[in-house]
């Protein structure tokens, strides 16, 4: 199988970082992530598309990163495209996730450029769920409700 590139698409839900509203702060973080990973940065661009939405793109020799940021919703959608067969977009994603601090992430990995005939390509999807303490707290609430019903 000949792979030309790897792509990671992601959704970050309920982001905690208060700097989410600051387009320049997000742009600086994106440039920092690229420096950490040793990429040859060509250009970064940030544009406000509306009061509720801005977009950032970083173009570098190895690929690109695109972010759509919705501060009021505390939501970020994006993709990381790396133009080599053995690329690791997860390394870039770790830095983004560390900055935005989401409660929940949804990621999809793609191997791009599979030129073998008759090969079905299925994306690998991995979803992270909210921290377990929230699940535990919800479970405790359910138990209290059930206990009240049993007493009645």
TrEMBL record:
The keyword S-adenosyl-L-methionine applies. Keywords: Autocatalytic cleavage, Decarboxylase, Lyase, Polyamine biosynthesis, Pyruvate, S-adenosyl-L-methionine, Schiff base, Spermidine biosynthesis, Zymogen. Pfam families: AdoMet_dc. One of its GO terms (molecular function) is adenosylmethionine decarboxylase activity. It comes from the Bacteria. InterPro entries: AdoMetDC_fam_prok, S-AdoMet_deCO2ase_core. GO terms for biological process: spermidine biosynthetic process. One of its GO terms (cellular component) is cytosol. This is S-adenosylmethionine decarboxylase proenzyme. It comes from Selenomonas bovis.
């Amino acid at each position: 199988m000949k792979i030309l590139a790897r792509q990671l698409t992601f959704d970050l839900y309920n982001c905690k970082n208060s700097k989410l509203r600051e387009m320049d702060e997000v742009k600086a973080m994106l440039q920092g992530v690229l420096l950490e990973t040793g990429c040859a940065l060509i250009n970064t661009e940030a544009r406000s598309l509306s009061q509720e939405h801005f977009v950032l793109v970083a173009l570098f020799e190895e690929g690109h990163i695109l972010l759509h940021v919705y501060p009021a919703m505390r939501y970020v959608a994006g993709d990381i495209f790396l133009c080599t067969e053995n690329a690791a977009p997860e390394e870039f994603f770790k830095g983004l996730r560390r900055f935005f601090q989401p409660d929940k992430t949804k990621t999809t990995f793609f191997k791009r450029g599979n030129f073998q005939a008759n090969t079905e390509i299925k994306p690998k999807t991995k979803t992270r769920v909210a921290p377990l303490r929230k699940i535990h707290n919800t479970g405790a609430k359910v138990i209290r409700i059930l206990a009240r019903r049993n007493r009645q």
